Structure formats: C-alpha cells, structure tokens
Amino acid sequence: MEDNIFQVYEDEIRSLEEEIEMLVEKYEERQQESTFYSDEEILMSIKSFHKEFQGESKEHESPSDLKAQLESLETDLSFLMKFTGIWFTRHSKKTVEKSGSRTIQKHRLAGHCHSLPFQLEFHLLETKNKESVSTVITNLNIIMESGEYSDVSKFVSSVEESGNLLLFFRSLSSYAEWCEHRRCTFLHFK
C-alpha cells in the first residue's frame, strides 16, 4: 500500500519535472524570438520612427505614397508590439491648450502586455523655443486591475510620481512575462 503511494508521488514528481523542462524550453524560445529580428531590422524601424517624430518625412503627392507610408508604419508598429509584448488596443488624443510656444495634449492609452491589462492617461506638455522642442509628461495616471496583480501598486505609484513611461513599459513587459510563466506553472496544480 505504501509502495503505491510512493509510486504515485514519484510519478507526479516526474510529471512536474517534465512540465518544468517544457516551460524552460518555451521560455528560451520566447527569449530567442526577441533576438530573431536582426540588428538591421531594428535599426531601420528605429530610424523610421525618428524621421516621423522629427518631421523629416517629405510631403507626399499621391494617395499611393500615403498608402505605402501607412503600410510601412503598420509594419513597424506590428514589429514593435511583437518585440515588446505590449499591445495597444485604444488611443485618444485631445489638445487641451495651445499657445504660441506651448501645447498641452491629453492622451489616453489602453492595452495589454501578455495577460496584464493597463490604461494610461497623461498630459504631454510641448514647449518650443528658437532652437529646440522639449516635451514633458505630466499628470500621469496608470490604471491596472488590482486583485491578482496588487503587488505592483507601489511601483505604479512611483512611476506616476516620476512620469517615466519608459520605466513603466520596460518593467511591465518583464513583470507580465514572468506572471505568464507563473500562471502556466500553477495551472498544473489546479
């Protein structure tokens, strides 16, 4: 009788070890996917975005040029979403104030990173002087579902105070990836 119990436990241990190996392989595949894109592809995508933000793109004469540019931007956006794991589902922008050298826009973003949903709301203050343009994020408000992911509330509060969106997205990506691994592991025990 005791041998049967031990055998059941040993079988369960073997099963768990196999699942851990499978999860490790899956994780390594995901890590390799991020290196799947060549440095050249990444640089081309970054250069494309820099040109758009700096206003260096030339004016288009025909609708076919606009369509080609739109397709290029959609490809770049798809690449970035696959690369980071962050998917935007909604965005809205509203100009709150506009004066000669100062513009304030209110942005709202919603999306998810792996299985973690998020919403952002912030003001983008853009000031222009003779030589440059500077932008600052103010009034940052981050909304994440509490409950299962309540341990990120301190982090969210600190990001809201600093207004550092890059830190938020980097950390969210890493945290969400590990939450997904943890979820898959604990699914076995349910």
UniProtKB/TrEMBL annotation:
According to the UniProt entry, the coiled-coil residues are: 6-33
Keywords on this record?
Answer: Coiled coil
Q: Can you say what this protein is called? A: CENPP protein
- Biological process, per Gene Ontology: CENP-A containing chromatin assembly
Pfam families (alphabetical)? CENP-P
Question: Which gene codes for it?
Answer: Cenpp
Cite the InterPro entries for this sequence.
CENP-P
Q: Name one GO cellular component term.
A: chromosome, centromeric region
Q: Which residues form the signal peptide?
A: none
Q: Does the keyword Coiled coil apply?
A: yes
Keyword set includes Coiled coil: yes
